[in-house]
Amino acid sequence: METNSMQAEEATQTHILSPEQLLAHWQGHRKLTRRVIEAFPDDALFSYSVGGMRPFSELALEMIGMGGEGIGGIATGNWEAFPTPNTPTTKAELLKLWDEVTETINKTWPQISLQRFQETDVAFGQYESKIYWTLFYFIDNEIHHRGQGYVYLRSLGIQPPPFWERE
Hints:
Elements: H1 2-12, H2 19-39, H3 42-47, H4 56-76, H5 91-108, E1 120-123, E2 127-130, H6 131-155
Antiparallel strand pairs: 1-2
Binding site for a divalent metal cation: 145
Keywords: Metal-binding
Protein name: Damage-inducible protein DinB
């Protein structure tokens, strides 16, 4: 009886967000993070830190890896490394890599079935959770690191972009 009730519940479940809306939300955060990268002076992007934290370029590379590797894992269950031929050494190179990952996310997203978001997987061989939860983690991690970037920019006397402008 319990099983039939749960199946009926799942069949009539209403979704709050569509996959397209979730992608737009994630890409809104990525657009804002890109503007944070753009706001950094070239030299500070790769060298400046506060309180022993990593420079923002290293944080951006972590986000690039999560998004680039993560979208493939989300879509297919295969958590392969995102190919990065050379570590960027300039802001232009970092932004180019950021944009390549954005394009990869946009091209891969339609391959994700609605059911896949509810499946459990082990992201990067270590983090077991539902796919939607893994994606939330990617977004939360980006917000966290972008916040570090805001602190860096403010300590450099630079006004960061408004956090609510994600278009």
